[in-house]
Input
Amino acid sequence: MPAADLPLLIDAARIAGRVATSFTGPAAARWDKPGDAGPVTEADLAVNDVLASTLRLARPDYGWLSEETEDDAKRLSADTLFIIDPIDGTRSFVEGARTWAISIAVAHQGQITAAAIYLPRRDKLYAAGKGLGATLNNTPLTATHADMEPGSTVLAARPNFNDKHWRNGAPPVDRHYRPSLAYRLSLVGEGRFDGMITLRPSWEWDIAAGALIVSEAGGTITDRTGAPLRFNNSHPALNGVVAAGPRLHSALVNELGPERAA
Output
């Protein structure tokens, strides 16, 4: 199944990239979602539409979960489904920056089996198939083997490094940030950064594709407690995410204190 689905995801990501870049970020029509759920633009919806038509036509029996499609409980009975974030990092897109991504994944019985993350403005296409490894523009990826020590690099928003979240205070690592969760995970798989954490509940569409890229690059990814990730939940959110090479991952999870709001 991964070998069959992966070329489809890669082709769809490139098609979606052309659609997204046909919009000018700051000039694209934008509005705020209800319930303080963040911004959305006409580009998000256009990418969602082209992905839906491309992917669902190719795999009509697969379920569908997308940030920009009203959720349908029928997906819960699907053995296999697409998990989509048409533009991860919409604020970055609106600002005209280059660090937003198109994130596409296939989940089978709760596990991600194929994934593609594409940054059109950087022409970076990350891809992974379960048991097939992870690549960036067809070059194989390997996560780092860093431990938790000064100089290790972790991608995280600043609130995650508040001492209240850690048993012994914030860990002695260098904090960095990128606005797209999918891109942060890809960078861990690429080995450019040693780890990534987000302690807040995380939507499945932000994490699904990057989770496979990390694991197929030899990294470890779990929720904030160290529990394995499972997808296609009735409420499609995960209990935070910790991703890194095995040693750093273990150290980060061990140092996290009792769960509190991030």
In short: The helical segments are 2-21, 42-58, 90-94, 181-190, 204-216, 246-255. The two ends are 37 Å apart (CA to CA). The domain at 153-255 is CATH 3.40.190.80 (D-Maltodextrin-Binding Protein; domain 2).
